[in-house]
Amino acid sequence: MLLMLKENLVSLQHSVADICARCGRDPQEVLIVGVTKYSDASAVNEALAAGLKDIAENRVQAAKDKFEQVNCTGITKHLIGHLQTNKVKDAVQLFDLIQSVDSVKLVQEINKRAVEMGKVQDILLQVDIAKEEQKFGLPEEAMPAFLEAVKVLSHVHMRGLMTMAPLTQDKSAVRSVFHRCRQLFDSLRPLEGNIQMKILSMGMSGDYGIALEEGATMIRIGSLIFK
């Protein structure tokens, strides 16, 4: 399995490099995050041994159970699934980057727990551009109020944006969502203090190519690694 995971990672890295070359981008700008939600601890450990440095889970409890069996030394751990306020304490303890922050109430609770732990918690704002009922995320029109709330928080560092494309075979619809998120990302670049636009997290196994073409700096890949 280790050999297979190495081959999958190398293949993905080559694909990213090819797409970036076509777009005139440096592949070193792109971080691959391995989505481990369907993989057991053994498979995750082998992926880490194969060279994966960033792993992501969707659920706090699943991560809590799995991370106890995973060698996380030197690894960056991401939360990419919806986070409920009653799970924030565990999330702040477990994760280096919480990508799925989508409300003022949630980010304030994250800050409260981070203060208690003496930790500055890195977050991304999840923006709902696709506007699908089953998707979480903050609507675009609510972003100004969210940003004003974040600016006064002492233990939260907002490092960028995350979004998810619609579940569709229509590539133009996918591209439209990613393109709009890139526009929002660029518009926030002048912000300073605890809001610094460094990460644009968008694109998964089925649409990461379009995401890279539209400027993603982080892609979240599951099945192409753990297949």
Your description of this structure?
With 227 residues, the chain is of the alpha/beta class. It is built from 8 helices and 9 strands. Strands 1, 2, 3, 4, 5, 6, 7, 8 and 9 form a 9-stranded parallel beta sheet that branches. 37% of the residues are buried. The model has no long low-confidence stretch (mean pLDDT 96).
Notable characteristics:
9-stranded parallel beta sheet, 227 residues, 41% helix, alpha/beta, single chain, 20% strand, globular, 8 helices, TIM Barrel
What would you say about this model in short?
The chain is of the alpha/beta class and 227 residues long. The chain is built from eight helices and nine strands.
CATH homologous group name: Alanine racemase
Identify the overall geometry.
globular
Q: What's the Cα radius of gyration?
A: 17 Å
**CATH T-level topology:** TIM Barrel
CATH architecture heading:
Alpha-Beta Barrel
Please report the distance between the alpha carbons of the first and last residues: 10 Å
Question: What percentage of the residues does DSSP assign to strands (E)?
Answer: 15-25%
The unreliable regions are none
Tell me how many strands there are. Answer: 9
Percentage of residues assigned to helices: 40-55%
Task: Please describe the biggest sheet, giving its number of strands, its sense, and whether it closes into a barrel.
Answer: 9 strands, parallel
CATH class: Alpha Beta
